[in-house]
Amino acid sequence: MNVVLFRAFPDPYRLSMTRYADELQRRVGAYMKAGEAIRTESLPGARIDGGWARYWDQYVRYGRYAAAHAGDVNHVIDHGYGHLARTLPARRTIVTFHDAVVMKVPGVSWRTKMALGHSLRAMRRAAAIVCVSESGKRDLLDLADLPADRIHVIPWGIDEAFRPPPDRAMLRRRLGFNGNVVLMAGHTQGYMNVERMLRVVATVIARQGIDLTLVKIGMPFTPEQQRLVAELELGERIDFVGRVADADLPAYYQAADVLLYAPLLAGFGLPPLEAMACGTPVVASNRGAIPEVVGDAALLADAEDEGGLAQALGEALGNPVRRRRLIDAGFARAGQFEWSSAARQLLELYRHVARV
Asked: What is the CATH architecture assignment of 2-157+338-355?
């Protein structure tokens, strides 16, 4: 059995899909037997800068390329490329659906929505669909006419590198962290709710009197977000780190005091899990799969409730008893998401599709 993982284009806003493909190849490959192999494929020279060239490469050239490089089982790792199920052997193809952001949050262009609709219709041909959460499965069933028995919920796992540091004080000195540090991770597209999180931070400083530094890793703020930073007088309190290599990412979670993560919709919620595995309390929105993923191990508020998020952030920073409970509950919750379990489930699905 030869399994081929078809990668998404390496967009700066979809770096998680690169991690997902890498983890699947490594983790599933570790459980394969003699005669089984797994590899990844991606379109050479794919243009990702937008415009019609991008659409031509993604929806025409990649389909032709995929058809020429199909395996015994084909796994399209991002639902935005579900259209590949039209050119791949349908009965040997699996697609992972991650989230309904494009269809459910405001501000998405009609062209992007139309393209995803095309991919969702093509996914009806696939032998199986993997969803990374029950919430995502519900959204998918609302969006597409798919039989529920063809959908398999297999969550992400957490890399073993996300664990408590041996010496947190030394790590904080190395990173230059002083006082209360709130971590904001990820990109800055509209659905990530960055503007509200900035106002939440400003509220905690001004109204609760908590001195803190906001450390931002990942994509830079947009010009509009930078103007808001200036209006809120947060400039001296923000440490913008930029993109962090995967090997260095755990250190920022380990050294922070709280992760603030409040998207308008989340198909899974990997940053909260990674923070909890490192012993860092989490304040998050209650949208999408986040409540399902974090359980009672994080402080949640609605993504549009700035007052509720500010109260939760203040409590996570200023209440030592609550912090200890969140840390202990976070360790227990994060321990339920192991790549070994996900890899074995996926391998069994690959074998089932290969046999049918």
From this structure: 3-Layer(aba) Sandwich (3.40)
